[in-house]
Amino acid sequence: MTKGALKAQNATWVWGVAVADALALVAFAFPSVVDQAASWLSSGSRLGGAAFVPVAVLLLTSLVPSDAKAVLVFWRIKEVLPGHRAFLTFVHKDSRIDIERLRMVVGQFPETPRDQNTLWYRLFKQVEGDAGVSQAHRHFLLFRDLAALSFILMIVAPVTLLAVGAATEAAKFALWIMVVQYLATATAARFQGERLVCNVLALKGASGAAKKPKAASKKAS
After folding, report:
1. How far apart are CA 33 and CA 23, in angstroms?
2. Is the whole-model pTM more than 0.85?
3. What percent of the chain lies above the pLDDT cut of 70?
4. Whole-number Å distance between alpha carbons of 46 and 10
5. Which of 27, 14, 37 is nearest to 161 (CA)?
6. In principle, which of 120, 141, 174, 202 could form an S-S bond with 83, CB 3.0–4.6 Å?
7. Which residues contact 129 (CB under 8 A, 6 or more apart)?
8. CA 205 to chain CA mean position, Å
């Protein structure tokens, strides 16, 4: 399944988290608004709001490029993705990976981060249809986008609450909620990204041909 299709599947979850965040913050900052919101949701205007929410969330997540999202998840500036360390680090971290068989498939392991990521991506494209690989990829994209959204809301939510007259305590609460959410989703995205790398290496290692045993030398009669 393509990256675009996986992100489309994740869109509902991202929208749902954004709506839940907004409702929680508004309920905390302006308790009286909850009753008004309930009345609003029961009216015909909810259709316009339902159409607006996905657009707003898509706009917020689109403000952060993929490279920047990776930085927010892996907390690195250079060679950010785990694929950059696939053959010197992660190949040794997962007991499912048969290193010798993997070498039979790919040859000598590359050493530079760029070459490692290039080779890993080539292997990934060969097995991206596998259920385990596809699931890890989908979850990585989901939590990566949620981490990026949470990072934006760390700034936008407190400023917006203060701008509309909420108490300072409410703005501080919003900040800490978004910080916790960002750390949680970034950690989950990092785990899923590393798992994706290992899943690909394990699958390709399992597909390698086993070494043939050396024929026993015949003794001279």
Report:
1. 10
2. no
3. 66
4. 23
5. 27
6. 120
7. 1
8. 24
List, as one string, the DSSP characters of 125-189: HHHTTSHHHHHHHHHHHHHHHHHHHHHHHHHHHHHHHHHTT--HHHHHHHHHHHHHHHHHHHHHH
Using the structure block, give the residue that is written with the tokens 């981490």.
147
Q: Do 190 and 74 meet the contact criterion of CB atoms below 8 Å apart? A: yes
**3-state DSSP of 70-109:** HHHHHCCCCCCCHHHHCCCCHHHCCCCCCHHHHHHHHCCC
Is the pLDDT assigned to residue 11 strictly greater than 90? no
Residue 88 has pLDDT above 80, yes or no: yes
In the chain, what are the domain boundaries? 3-30+48-206
| Nearest alpha-carbon partner for 203 in 134, 133, 112, 137 | 133
User: Does residue 153 contact residue 21 with C-beta atoms inside 8 Å?
Assistant: yes
Q: Which residues contact 166 (CB under 8 A, 6 or more apart)?
A: 29, 30
86 Cβ neighbours under 8 A, 6+ residues apart: 116, 117, 119, 120, 197, 201
Greater model confidence, 128 or 18: 128
C-alpha separations of 82 from 6, 69, 89, 114, 199 in Å: 20, 13, 9, 11, 12
pLDDT tens-digit map of 110-148:
999 999 999 999 999 999 999 999 999 999 999 999 999
Q: Which amino acid is at 71?
A: V
Residue 221 to residue 207: CA distance in whole angstroms: 41
